[in-house]
Amino acid sequence: MRVGLDISQIAHGGGVGTYTQNLALGLAQMQDFKTVFFYSSLRKPYRGNLSNVKSFSVPPTLLELLFNRLRILPIETFIGEVDVFHSSDWIQPKTKAKKVTTYHDVIPLKFPQLSHPKIVEVHKRRLKLVEEEIDMVIAVSEATKKDLLEVSKIPSEKIKVVYEGVGREFKKRDQKDVEVFRRKYNLPEEFILAIGGIGERRNLGRVKEIVKDFSLVITGETIPYLPSEEMPLLYNAAEVLLYPSLYEGFGLPILEAMACGTPVITSNVSSMPEVGGEAAKYVNPEDMEGMIRVVREIMNSKGVREEMIKNGFEQAKKFTWEKCAQETVKVYREVLEL
């Protein structure tokens, strides 16, 4: 089996980039088939450790025009013949191979008001191609599968749920290293951590309103967006992760925090209860009083936090990138039998 995987999303970081990077590394380690990687970015050349990367300096807008609209060149023009091509969430090239794609969320389709109009247009255009051509869709959660069934014509039997994982770098760190990190960014001794983002989806307006009695640190606002190697130290330094997002296709920070021994408060909507299991505390993301009550309960009780930490470690162990890669390969083999 020869598999082609679009890894262009690595250039953009975020949850999709994390998924793409870790899936690619997992596939590259498997010996019973060959993977060729397609990478395209105008401003950010590929500098990773993967071999067999076909790299091109093409901007995303031109790539979208080429593959989603003009459709004059198949992906084989760039990567050679493959048996399966696994596309990103941005483009759907023509190909003679069996076609697999991953949906991380359907935010531009279900909540277009939360996305830029051009992004909404791209995702609508691509969805039509997916509906017409795709052999199998991977959804990163049951919630995302449910949403896909609501907004698309893709039949249920063509959607497989494959959970994301948490990297091994997310773990309890030496307290001396955490203190050095704390001093570097001038962080409080005790603080609640929130993850920043563009638009209203991360619910930061309400977060700022409810966290009045405690110090609040927000990535991208009160501190810069950190390089990936420093995120485990940030989770280790925090007392609690407050993540009352209005919608998530998966919610990687939930697992990352748990794996670092940080209690998690998150929303009781979309995929978040799936990911957090019984280890997180859940809130209605629109209920200000309810969120205040839960935050105070956890911040004021060391015993509650210790129980959540213990349960969080166990929950995080259920999700690994190795398992994600193995289950993705099962999807490839299944489409080859269709």
TrEMBL record:
Residues 151-314 form the Glycosyl transferase family domain. Keywords: Transferase. GO terms for molecular function: glycosyltransferase activity. It comes from the Bacteria. One of its GO terms (biological process) is lipopolysaccharide biosynthetic process. CDD domains: GT4_MtfB-like (cd03809). It holds the Pfam family Glycos_transf_1. This is Glycosyl transferase family 1 domain-containing protein. It comes from Candidatus Daviesbacteria bacterium RIFCSPHIGHO2_12_FULL_43_11.
